[in-house]
Amino acid sequence: MIFPQEQRLLSALGERLRLARLRRKLSNAVVAQRAGISRTTLYKVEAGDPGATLGSYVRVLAVLGLENDLQTLAADDKVGRKLQDLALAPTRRPRAASKRVAAPAPSSPDDTKGTQ
What we know:
By secondary structure, the protein is mainly alpha-helical. Helix content is 50%, strand content 0%. α1 crosses α3 (39-47) and α2 (28-35) crosses α3 (39-47).
Protein backbone atom coordinates (compact mmCIF):
# COMPACT_ATOMS: atom_id res chain seq x y z
CA MET A 1 0.00 0.00 0.00
CA ILE A 2 1.29 3.44 -0.86
CA PHE A 3 -0.12 6.73 0.32
CA PRO A 4 -1.17 9.38 -2.23
CA GLN A 5 1.55 11.81 -1.19
CA GLU A 6 4.20 9.13 -1.63
CA GLN A 7 2.76 8.22 -5.04
CA ARG A 8 3.00 11.86 -6.08
CA LEU A 9 6.67 11.89 -5.04
CA LEU A 10 7.41 8.77 -7.06
CA SER A 11 5.51 10.10 -10.06
CA ALA A 12 7.45 13.37 -9.91
CA LEU A 13 10.74 11.45 -9.69
CA GLY A 14 9.77 9.30 -12.66
CA GLU A 15 8.88 12.39 -14.67
CA ARG A 16 12.22 14.02 -13.84
CA LEU A 17 14.03 10.87 -14.95
CA ARG A 18 12.04 10.79 -18.21
CA LEU A 19 12.88 14.43 -18.88
CA ALA A 20 16.56 13.80 -18.09
CA ARG A 21 16.55 10.94 -20.62
CA LEU A 22 14.89 13.10 -23.27
CA ARG A 23 17.31 16.00 -22.67
CA ARG A 24 20.18 13.60 -23.32
CA LYS A 25 18.41 12.45 -26.50
CA LEU A 26 18.47 8.82 -25.35
CA SER A 27 15.76 6.39 -26.38
CA ASN A 28 14.04 4.25 -23.81
CA ALA A 29 15.56 1.17 -25.50
CA VAL A 30 19.10 2.53 -25.06
CA VAL A 31 18.59 3.50 -21.41
CA ALA A 32 16.95 0.17 -20.61
CA GLN A 33 19.80 -1.73 -22.27
CA ARG A 34 22.51 0.28 -20.50
CA ALA A 35 20.72 -0.07 -17.17
CA GLY A 36 20.31 -3.80 -17.65
CA ILE A 37 16.53 -3.62 -17.24
CA SER A 38 13.63 -4.26 -19.58
CA ARG A 39 11.86 -1.46 -21.38
CA THR A 40 8.75 -2.35 -19.38
CA THR A 41 10.69 -1.74 -16.16
CA LEU A 42 11.95 1.57 -17.52
CA TYR A 43 8.36 2.57 -18.29
CA LYS A 44 7.46 1.71 -14.68
CA VAL A 45 10.35 3.78 -13.35
CA GLU A 46 9.42 6.77 -15.49
CA ALA A 47 5.78 6.41 -14.40
CA GLY A 48 6.79 6.35 -10.74
CA ASP A 49 5.42 2.86 -10.25
CA PRO A 50 5.99 1.77 -6.62
CA GLY A 51 6.41 -1.80 -7.87
CA ALA A 52 9.66 -0.92 -9.62
CA THR A 53 12.62 -1.82 -7.44
CA LEU A 54 14.89 0.76 -5.91
CA GLY A 55 17.70 -0.92 -7.80
CA SER A 56 15.95 -0.11 -11.09
CA TYR A 57 15.69 3.54 -10.12
CA VAL A 58 19.38 3.57 -9.17
CA ARG A 59 20.43 1.93 -12.44
CA VAL A 60 18.48 4.51 -14.46
CA LEU A 61 20.03 7.31 -12.41
CA ALA A 62 23.48 5.87 -13.09
CA VAL A 63 22.88 5.63 -16.85
CA LEU A 64 21.78 9.27 -16.84
CA GLY A 65 24.82 10.30 -14.77
CA LEU A 66 22.66 11.32 -11.82
CA GLU A 67 23.64 8.62 -9.31
CA ASN A 68 25.41 11.15 -7.07
CA ASP A 69 22.04 12.76 -6.44
CA LEU A 70 21.38 9.83 -4.09
CA GLN A 71 23.93 11.33 -1.70
CA THR A 72 21.53 14.16 -0.93
CA LEU A 73 18.64 11.91 0.06
CA ALA A 74 18.04 12.18 3.80
CA ALA A 75 21.46 13.80 4.17
CA ASP A 76 20.16 16.68 6.26
CA ASP A 77 18.11 14.92 8.93
CA LYS A 78 16.93 18.00 10.83
CA VAL A 79 14.32 16.16 12.90
CA GLY A 80 16.73 13.37 13.84
CA ARG A 81 19.42 15.84 14.85
CA LYS A 82 16.96 17.82 16.95
CA LEU A 83 15.82 14.67 18.75
CA GLN A 84 19.42 13.65 19.32
CA ASP A 85 20.34 17.08 20.63
CA LEU A 86 17.43 17.00 23.06
CA ALA A 87 18.58 13.64 24.38
CA LEU A 88 22.14 14.93 24.80
CA ALA A 89 21.16 18.13 26.58
CA PRO A 90 22.15 18.05 30.24
CA THR A 91 19.24 17.73 32.60
CA ARG A 92 18.91 20.57 35.02
CA ARG A 93 19.28 19.59 38.65
CA PRO A 94 18.04 21.71 41.49
CA ARG A 95 20.79 23.76 42.96
CA ALA A 96 22.28 22.31 46.11
CA ALA A 97 22.60 24.44 49.21
CA SER A 98 25.82 26.30 49.53
CA LYS A 99 28.68 24.01 50.37
CA ARG A 100 30.05 26.53 52.81
CA VAL A 101 29.67 25.23 56.35
CA ALA A 102 29.23 27.82 59.03
CA ALA A 103 31.81 27.61 61.73
CA PRO A 104 30.30 26.47 65.02
CA ALA A 105 29.85 29.21 67.57
CA PRO A 106 32.16 29.00 70.51
CA SER A 107 30.41 27.40 73.41
CA SER A 108 30.46 29.11 76.70
CA PRO A 109 29.15 28.06 80.09
CA ASP A 110 26.45 30.77 79.79
CA ASP A 111 24.90 29.06 76.70
CA THR A 112 23.57 26.16 78.75
CA LYS A 113 21.84 28.24 81.44
CA GLY A 114 18.55 28.77 79.67
CA THR A 115 18.10 25.22 78.35
CA GLN A 116 17.32 23.53 81.64
